[in-house]
Amino acid sequence: QKRCSMATYISARTMPEEKADDIPEPVTHEIVQGEPPYVLIKWNPPINPNGLIILYEVFYSKVGDSEVHTTCVSRPAYQKLGGTKLSLDQPGNYSVRVRATSLAGNGSFTEIIYFFMPNPDQGLIWIVMGPVICFILLLLAGGGVFVYFKKRQTEGPLGDLITSPNPEYFSAGDMYVPDEWEVPRDKIALLRELGQGSFGMVYEGVAKDIVKGDPETRVAVKTVNESASLRERIEFLNEASVMKAFSCHHVVRLLGVVSKGQPTLVVMELMTHGDLKSYLRSLRPDSENNPSGSPPPTLKDMLQMAAEIADGMAYLNAKKFVHRDLAARNCMVAEDFTVKIGDFGMTRGIYETDYYRKGGKGLLPVRWMAPESLKDGVFTAHSDCWSFGVVLWEISTLAEQPYQGLSNEQVLKFVMEGGFLDRPENCPERMHSLMQMCWQYNPKMRPTFLEIIEMLRDDLDPSFQEVSFFYSDENKVPETGEFDLDLDNMESIPLDPSSYSQREESLSRDSGPSVALRGNYEEHVPYTHMNGGKKNGRILSLPRSSPS
């Protein structure tokens, strides 16, 4: 057969199929403690790509940094490892995403994953300490088994029979009901452990679309232990719910709650520098946590801290809320070093030695409690003011233990008889005068938190006016000169709101101690009740504390 011309070959390519080059989830990571340590990122290839996969691109960056790094992984390199190795110079939190490139072009990025790259020295410590810890745990387990069988031998097979109410049986009114604060679990990614809370572990994490205008927010995530009972889980959520009513710059913010499914999560504003007690101790010149040699706070710094705490407490008082546990351990320090009133009821497990169980009752922070609280169990804004004075003492001493050298029982007796803390060594007169005002034995002679800020306002950073409750429209001051003393008629129950109305009062601002007189106590001279009540007029001495 004759042809008109030579044969011609034509190649053609079909249109690419959308999403065919997308990498299927999940992308995984594994920290490998080698020399040096690295992160192994692994993923599965596209199931039915548009032709041959040429390469993969891995985009990664340190959380908080704007610089994004890219690694190109060739097809042979991927087939060898099923992923790629990332050698990271600095420890910290990182984010990673991957995309494939085929003959048809780039596929879509995978979902971002987060991981924490630990310090290499920490891995070495665990390698050394791991066997030691395991040995100690085995000893404790063996001792527990021995004590158990010994006790069964002495008590008989049943032991002592004790009846008690079923702790899991309570009314539906105690149950937590999800509301507008509920956050989908898939919007929260945990990065690393921050420490142990009273209910469970606390993590640093990243929350997506939880704060308006911020697609990703660094947060603190509180959890409940898996072994916690139903009652403990509901108590955990109810304590977090207390914070839903608060919106103040100097009170740590609640951002959301994950109550559906397990584990239960409470999402909080992240306070980078931790609690105030630990932060103050890190500023001690001899502290191992102060390698850079950060100087201790100046008087201006201390007054700023005092005003920020007082502003948060003034806000809580205006919301009819009595804190009952104000202490440096319950204040938190933000990234910009602003001090805020911490979350409520959640820090007790961390500093358990700061509490004392009186007469078989609940744990009490006796070293921070006012005499009327120790005597009669009365908690008001006045007793919070006494605790604030102890916080000022903690700031001045870089978080020494109050009444060091005295047992909890001795502190109880000492304070109820009219005693109070000594002036710290090298403490500025301004700070000590403020402490003395807060430690007046008569509760009505103590200043309000608004009056405390009034005394400090000229020494504060200008930014305080922009963010504080004190200068806000919400702080409405009555024009009447009459005083409401309903504070002393409050019932002493947990988290009982005080019937407290704020008032306008002009305060003298001389360098000496001064306090405004209240109600029917105008015949009293300030400080006449400071070292005892009607039965105790003598001054009680207390040895000066030494650094802890």
From TrEMBL:
- The principal localisation class reads membrane
Q: Which UniProt keywords apply?
A: ATP-binding, Disulfide bond, Glycoprotein, Kinase, Membrane, Nucleotide-binding, Phosphoprotein, Receptor, Repeat, Transferase, Transmembrane, Transmembrane helix, Tyrosine-protein kinase
Q: Where does ATP bind?
A: 222
Key word Isomerase present in the record?
Answer: no
Q: Which GO terms describe its cellular component?
A: axon; insulin receptor complex
GO terms assigned for molecular function: ATP binding; insulin receptor activity; insulin receptor substrate binding
Taken from the record, one Pfam family name reads: Insulin_TMD
UniProt EC number: 2.7.10.1
Protein name per the record: receptor protein-tyrosine kinase
* Species the sequence originates in: Oreochromis niloticus (Nile tilapia)
